[in-house]
């Protein structure tokens, strides 16, 4: 059943046994499988897929029409997909291109292109569209096999993976890198990230002007880089490997090991106005730069 107030786009495939309330917006080319109830406040972007028996839980406050300030909209942004039997709590946003696994219980907003599973849903990966996939110094994709310095273009903008000289000695090991020679800027600031719970995600922003260089000096973590067009994931698991993130690179760090210590060098002093924290805004800025 579809109530008259719902706004539905073109080429929408609503399967049998779906219910759509009045205050629902459905974009173009959306597929909603059977057994799905779209309550007031659900917004589905273009090219969204909703699997069978997905549950969008209703407004936390049943009298939200009396108290509109309490109304919670649920947004599923363009190209996202939700697996069968998933449960979506009210008021969350499932980011562009994200994938919600079958049976997941989504209690918090999901970042763009994240893959989440479980109850409560946790990030287990990110959707990649870079042909190289996960980039590292192992195998055919890697640099020299004897541990000398090297550089790999990740395939996402000007992001590059660097391996520095590593010297092993019975007295202890040493790794060394030189700014401007191997690291392409001189830092004005550094910070350390540590004691991060394994399920937490850091970063999720870009910079207008600041360059960054990341080295996991202990343990390991994964870095997702995105230039608004391509994405790739890099594992930092050695103190003599680092990744360079130029301005206008969306960066995410996750999968921290329990002992991980991430060292970040920054080209500029801290400036809150240099941050881009909304992915949709980031994509529009990148498009504007490319067109201008």
Characterization of the model:
With 292 residues, this protein is mainly beta. It has 1 helix and 30 strands. The chain has one helix at residues 279-291; strands at residues 7-8, 13-14, 19-20, 25-26, 31-32, 37-38, 42-44, 49-50, 55-56, 74-76, 81-82, 87-88, 93-94, 99-100, 105-106, 114-117, 122-126, 150-153, 160-163, 165-167, 174-176, 189-194, 202-207, 212-218, 221-226, 231-236, 241-245, 250-254, 261-266, 275-276. Mean pLDDT is 87; it is low at 139-148.
Gist of the model:
By secondary structure, the protein is mainly beta.
Largest sheet: 7 strands, mixed
Question: How many helices does DSSP assign?
Answer: 1
Radius of gyration: 22 Å
Mean pLDDT: 87
Adjacency order of strands in the biggest sheet: 2-5-8-11-14-16-17
Q: Total number of β-strand segments?
A: 30
Oligomeric grouping of the chains:
single chain
Shape: elongated
Q: How far apart lie the N and C ends?
A: 47 Å
Question: What would you call the structural class?
Answer: mainly beta
Uncertain stretches: 139-148
């Amino acid at each position: 059943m579809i109530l008259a107030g719902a706004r539905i786009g073109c080429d929408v495939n609503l399967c049998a046994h779906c219910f759509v309330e009045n205050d629902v917006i459905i974009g173009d080319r959306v597929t909603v499988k059977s057994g799905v109830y779209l309550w007031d406040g659900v917004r589905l972007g273009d090219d969204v897929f909703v699997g069978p028996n997905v549950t969008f839980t209703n407004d936390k406050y049943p009298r939200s029409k009396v108290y509109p300030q309490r109304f919670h909209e649920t947004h599923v942004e363009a190209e996202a997909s939700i697996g069968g039997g998933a449960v979506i709590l009210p008021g969350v946003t499932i980011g562009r291109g994200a994938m919600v696994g079958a049976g997941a219980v989504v209690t918090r907003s999901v970042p763009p292109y994240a893959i989440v599973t479980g109850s409560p849903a946790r990030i287990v990966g990110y959707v990649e569209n870079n042909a190289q996939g996960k980039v590292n110094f192992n195998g055919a994709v890697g640099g020299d096999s004897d541990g000398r310095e090297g550089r790999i273009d990740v395939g996402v903008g000007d992001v590059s993976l660097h391996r520095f000289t590593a010297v092993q000695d019975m007295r202890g090991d040493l790794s060394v890198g030189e700014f401007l020679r191997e690291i392409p800027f001189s830092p004005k600031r550094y910070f350390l990230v540590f004691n991060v719970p394994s399920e937490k995600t850091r970063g999720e922003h870009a910079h207008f002007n600041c360059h960054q260089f990341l080295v996991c000096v202990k343990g390991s973590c994964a870095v997702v880089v995105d230039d608004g067009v391509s994405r790739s994931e890099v594992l930092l698991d050695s103190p003599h490997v680092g990744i360079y993130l130029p301005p206008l690179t969306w960066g995410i760090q996750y999968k921290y090991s329990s002992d991980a210590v991430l060292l970040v060098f920054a080209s500029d002093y801290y400036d809150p106005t240099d941050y881009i924290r909304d992915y949709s805004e980031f994509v529009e800025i990148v498009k504007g730069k490319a067109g201008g």
